[in-house]
Design brief:
The protein has 142 residues and is α+β, with helices and mostly antiparallel strands. Helix content is 39%, strand content 18%. The protein has helices at residues 12-19, 67-79, 85-100, 124-141, and strands at 32-37, 44-52, 55-64. A hairpin with a 6-residue loop joins strand 1 and strand 2 (44-52).
Length: 142
């Protein structure tokens, strides 16, 4: 019987993204914030946002998560600027569908790099958490 070689869970791209997560910064004005915890893995994300006409002008995150949660938060930090609540909610729904396999459409924001976690549902909570926290922070600002 031939052995099956599994693809690595933590790819170089996932680790590079996790390592690129910016440190938490002090915003000159906080319009909304949220602190969320994933019940599946215990990851936590605290997100604060500054909005300009309902769109994210600046974001600050404090992330305590595995490499997938950190990589996801780094992608959120890179792509949040200029987004409004509807765009963030749409990306969250799109990402959730992509992770659970109910949607294979175009993903965006670079989340395709987290492909190794799709088959590992225990990682999904950490991946979704930064987007959930961003959405909650923008909703708190309303």
């Amino acid at each position: 019987m031939a052995s099956v070689v599994k693809a690595p869970l933590y790819t170089i791209e996932v680790l590079r993204l996790a390592g690129s997560l910016p440190d938490r910064v002090a915003l000159d004005r906080v319009d909304g914030s949220a602190q969320l915890r994933s019940p599946t893995c215990g990851s936590t994300v605290h997100t604060a946002v500054k909005l300009d006409h309902g769109r994210v002008a600046a974001i600050s995150q404090e992330v305590r998560a595995c490499a997938f949660g950190q990589a996801s938060a780094a992608l959120v930090a890179q792509h949040a600027a200029g987004r409004d609540r509807a765009e963030i909610a749409a990306m969250l729904a799109n990402l959730a569908g992509w992770l659970d396999g109910s949607s294979d459409g175009s993903l965006g924001w670079g989340f395709e790099a987290l492909e190794p976690a799709r088959a590992r549902t225990a990682r999904h909570g950490a991946i979704l958490l930064p987007l959930r926290a961003l959405l909650a922070a923008t909703e708190a600002a309303a």
